[in-house]
Specification:
With 97 residues, the chain is an alpha+beta fold. Helix content is 41%, strand content 32%. This is GYD domain-containing protein.
Length: 97
């Protein structure tokens, strides 16, 4: 599985309907399952981003398909970051010259 951190900002539509955000998060978790993606964590944040999500996806196609599907709903814009565990990073740096 591939881990991703997704940084989200509410659109104008998303802010107008912010009271529905917890319900939308639950719907997002269900949508993710249909792509084989597991939502590990969703937190609402103060500052530059409104929502931070941690996902595990079987591959990049599943992650991208989920991201585009949720963006098409119009409530959030997101930036997706590929994340690496300590074990992944140990393997990566072991291959450095």
């Amino acid at each position: 599985m591939v881990t991703y951190v997704v940084l989200g900002n509410f659109t104008d539509q998303g802010v107008r309907n912010v009271k529905d955000s917890p319900k939308r998060a639950e719907a997002f978790k269900e949508m993710a399952k249909s792509f084989g993606v597991t939502v590990k964590e969703i937190v609402w944040t103060q500052g530059r981003y409104d929502v931070v999500t941690v996902l595990e996806a079987p591959d990049e196609v599943a992650a991208m398909s989920l991201g585009l599907s949720v963006s098409a709903l119009g409530n959030i814009r997101s930036e997706t970051l590929r994340a690496f565990s300590a074990a992944d990073m140990t393997n990566i740096v072991s291959k450095m010259l």
